[in-house]
Amino acid sequence: MRRFEFIFYVFFYEVVFGFSVYGFGYFSAMPFTLLWSIILGAPAVVLMMNLKGKLLPIVDGLLRCLYAIPFLVEYFIYMQFKELYDLNTIMNGAGGALTGFTTTILGLIFSPLGLFHLFLYSIPLSILIMDLKRKTYDYTQPEKQVKTATAVLIPVCLVFNIIIIACIPSARTIVGAEYNYPKAVQAFGYMEGTALDIKSLLFGSGGDFQNVKNPVNLQTSKPGESVPDESGPDASLAPGESVPVPTPTPAREPQVMDINFTALSQKGGKIGTLATYCANVEPTYTNAMTGKFKGKNLIMITAEAFTAEAIDPELTPTLYRLATKGIQFTDSYVPATAGTTGGEFSHIFGLLPTTGGKSVTNMIDNGCTYFTMGQRLNAEGYYGQAFHNNDYKYYSRNKTHNKLGYSQGFMGIYNGMEKWVNYHQWPESDYDMFVGTCPLYLTQEHFNIYYMSVSGHSGYTRAGNAMSKKHWDETASLDGKYSEPVRAYKACNMDLDQGLKYLVDRLEECGKADDTVICIVADHFPYGLDPDASLGNMPKLSELYGYEVKNYVQRDHNRIIIWSGCLEKEDPIVVDTPTSSIDILPTLMNLFGIKYDSRLLPGRDVFSDSMPLAFNLNYDWKTDLGTYYSSKGEFVPKDANTQIPEGYVQQVKAIVSNKIKYCKNMLGTDFIKQCVGDPNK
Length: 681
Prior knowledge:
Number of domains: 2
CATH topology of the largest domain: Alkaline Phosphatase, subunit A
Number of strands: 15
Radius of gyration: 26 Å
Structural class: alpha/beta
Mean pLDDT: 88
Low-confidence stretches: 220-236, 238-243
Strand order of the largest sheet: 5-4-6-1-7-9-2-10
CATH class of the largest domain: Alpha Beta
C-alpha cells in the first residue's frame, strides 16, 4: 500500500546504518529493525494521512529528512570516534567535539565514504521529488484502512518485539542487567537501542546488586606472577626478566575510612542501595608498596590517543625509558568509552563513565570530587595546576577542571596557554606546552600537576597533521615498513616524547627527579587510524598493533606508565596481571600513602592481593585466568593448562556486573559527598 512506503524508508535508513557500522554482524538485528521501522514509521503515516493538498508532500519531505538525520549524526560520530555515543554523550560531549573539530568533521562528511552515505540517505527524498515531477505522488489509500492497519500494527509489533527478547537469554541480559548502549544498538538496531537509552535515562537500567564472593576470595595468583596475554601483550618492552612485585607485609591494615554505611543504607533509594553494597565489599589492604611515594611530587598526563605501540627505543626514547625503568605495566587496558572525556574521567575519578560525556559534569555538580589526586594532594598543601594545549572551554573543562582540587586552577588556550603554544596549527604541540609550563611549578616545594595532551590527535597524514609533518623526517627509518597513517601516528607521538624529555631533563637539573612521579595514561586507543572501519575491520590499527584486532579487549590494550627517578636505582617492578585505567587512582593513593576507602572505588590497588580484573562497559573482562567475551558469551582460559575453579566465570561475571551497576548508580547521586563530604566547600 503506497501510504506505508514511509515505513520502508525508515527500515532502509536503519539497514544502511547497521551494515555501515557492523557489517554482516548486523544480520541478527534485522527482525528488531523491521519491527521498530513499523513502530516509529507508522505515526508519520498517520500524520500525513490527515494532510491535504500541497502541505502533504512538504511534510512528507521534511519527515524523510528528519528521520534520516539521527542516523547520519550517529554514523559520522562513529566515523570519528569508533564508538557509538549515547544521548548523554551527544548532548554533553560530542556537541563540543562537533564544534571544536569542525574541520575534521567536515573532512569526514565530504570524504568519499561520507558523501556516499549522504547520497544513500537522500534516496527517499529523491524518490519523492521524482514522484512530484512525474505527478505519480499519490496517497489516496482509504483513510479508514490506514487507521485500522496502523492501530493494529504498532501494538502487534511491540508485543512481537517483547516476545522475541523474552525468548533469547542474551537479549534479555542486554535489556536488563548488562544494558550498554553500543551493545544494545548492535543487538537490536539503532532505533530500539536509542529507545532503550531513553528508558535508561528516565528510569535507570539493570537489576539489583548480586550476592557473590568478594574479589579477594577469588585471588588465584600473587601480584607479580607472570601471566601470558593472548590478547596482545607488550611485555617485550621490558628490558630484563620479570621481577615479582613485593608481596603484602604481614602487618596489613584495611584501606577504609570511618563511614557509617549502616546509617546511609537506611536512607533508602540509590543512596541506601549503594551503602548496602559498599558495606559488603571486601576492602583492599596496605602492602609493601604503601607510602612508597609519600611526600613526592606528582605529574599526571592523559596522553591523547596514546598506546603501547607509540613506544619505541629509537623514535621515542623517553617514553621507552619511563615505561621500562618505572613500574612496568605489561598487561594494561584503557576502555574506550565516550571519547577523550570518558578516558579522562576514568583515571581522574577511578570510575567508568556510565553517563557518557556527562560523567565528569555529574561528579562535579554532585560535589563528588573527594577521591581525586588533585583534591587529596591539595589537602596536604601541594601547589597544583591543570593544563591543556587546546581550547580551555573544550568539553567545559573551564568549569569542571577548576574544581578538581588544583590550587592554581586550569589553563588552556585562550586563558594563558596561548603565550607558549601556537594554536594556529592542528594539533598543537605538547613540547611547547611542557616548555612553557614547567617554570610555573618546578620551583615549588611540592607540586601536583595534570596535563591533557593533544599532539597525538588524528587525522594521521603527513600533510594534514602539524605534529606528523613536524617529525616526519625523523621517522625515515619507517619508510616502507608502515602505511602513511601509521607512520604519521608514530611521528606525531614524537612530540609528546620530546616534551617529556624536556620535562625529565629539567627535573634532573633541579634535583627533583627522584622526588617526582610521572603517571601517563591514554584517553583511548588511536581510533583515528581507520576512519571507515568497524570492529573486526580495522586494518591500520591492526598494522600498528601487529595483529588483527577482532574484539574490544584487543582494541583497548595499552601501556600505563608510572615512573620516578628513584625507581631507576632499584630492581624492576613488574605488574603483569590485567590492569585497567580505573586502577590508577587507588594505586596512586596507596603509593602516596593517602587515606582512602577502597570500597568506594571499583578499581583496585594493583599491589594489593585483590583479584586482578580489567573490564569494560561491554561487560568483557579479563583476569589472570583468562578472558571473557560478552558478545559471544565465551570464556577463554589463558592457556590449555589453566585450571578454572568451579563457578568462577559466573562469580566474576556477577562481580563485573556489580561494579558497572555501582558506577551507574553512583553517577546519578551525591553518594561520595554523603560518605566523605565535598572538598570544594
